[in-house]
């Protein structure tokens, strides 16, 4: 069985005890924990299950001794029996209330001592995963989410990895739960991910189920600060892997996190966003990617937020250390930044605005051809923004840039037409915003004028060729 290569993100710069103390306080007030406290107070009639032959005498005696007679050391005395009994119970009992109670018992057993995950992971019962994964399909939400919590502990607190097919199913289930509207248990789902994503192999499995883009799409929708903190924490642990740190901004992470930093009124949210930003600069092994991340942060006005935080001077050392680090790195990147770097970063961020570079004729004369680099990446992004953006400023600036590219690059009109840009600009002629209509009209004129200039030159050339040809023929004759 594969062994985990666990990395401890807290070990790099953060005190793990501090992080876990904060999170345990959060968990104590979650819907799942409140409901678990209520369920612990209930009494289960185990005798009725024995009489109806739903459980064996051995299972009955064991659960009564553990539950009603308080023999809390039973799991350690006979681990094999413990695993068999609990797996039999969750397999053969169907009543939701009883399953809830059994799951709370299992979770308590594991919480009391992490090493007890061996009881279930090393059982001779067969695959431990299937009985628990089946419970994720139950209708009862508490059953689903307490099961998910137990699975996370079994997967993370043992040295062997969760098998790939089971892992894929579980992570896909967590991702789908995140996307559910008004999920009362979203904090519990996020908590499971906070545990799972500390394990390096699980990080890549999460990437493979489109997990990162799901996290960011939820963060972009402005969830409450508690969920915000937990999901950014997930991004933080992901970025301890250098390859994932390099990929992160391909999912538009920096603009989304910059917005959260700007709006944040909770210190813990500020702290965790700054920690992600630091990882995005420190962890990539490709220095060019780290530089691009710095530029993206500058473009997203992170320096302004750092300045505000510097003036406030938080008592939290982690925050101020990260503010100082980010300030130094971002200021250095500004010094090295060419106007084209600024422009490229702005386009890639999707947050176009009327920054000076757009209106600079010198910029367009010198750099129009560079929009063709990397398979016309910047042009394709502009055309994508013309199609997808709902922001009038973005649309207006994108129209202007398309027009300037066409005006300064000889084959620009042909390339823009190939990419579908001309059609998108024409469509925006009827946009509700007058500024968008105006810039779209200018861009169309530039497309047409370029065509007329080309046509005029062709007619002039043909006229010269005719005159030259006629003279040559006459001379020959």
From TrEMBL:
Q: Domain ATPase V1 complex subunit H C-terminal spans what residues? A: 337-452
Residue ranges annotated as transmembrane are none
* Molecular function, one GO term: proton-transporting ATPase activity, rotational mechanism
Q: Which UniProt keywords apply?
A: Hydrogen ion transport, Ion transport, Transport
Q: Which family does it belong to?
A: Belongs to the V-ATPase H subunit family.
Q: Which GO terms describe its cellular component?
A: lysosomal membrane; vacuolar proton-transporting V-type ATPase, V1 domain
Q: What is this protein called?
A: V-type proton ATPase subunit H
Subunit field text: V-ATPase is a heteromultimeric enzyme made up of two complexes: the ATP-hydrolytic V1 complex and the proton translocation V0 complex.
Annotated organism of origin: Papilio xuthus
* Family matches, as Pfam families: V-ATPase_H_C, V-ATPase_H_N
Q: Which domain of life is it from?
A: Eukaryota
Q: Which gene encodes it?
A: LOC106126752
Task: Please verify whether the record's keywords include Ion transport.
Answer: yes
List the coiled-coil residues: none
Q: Does the keyword Transport apply?
A: yes
Q: Which PANTHER family match?
A: V-TYPE PROTON ATPASE SUBUNIT H
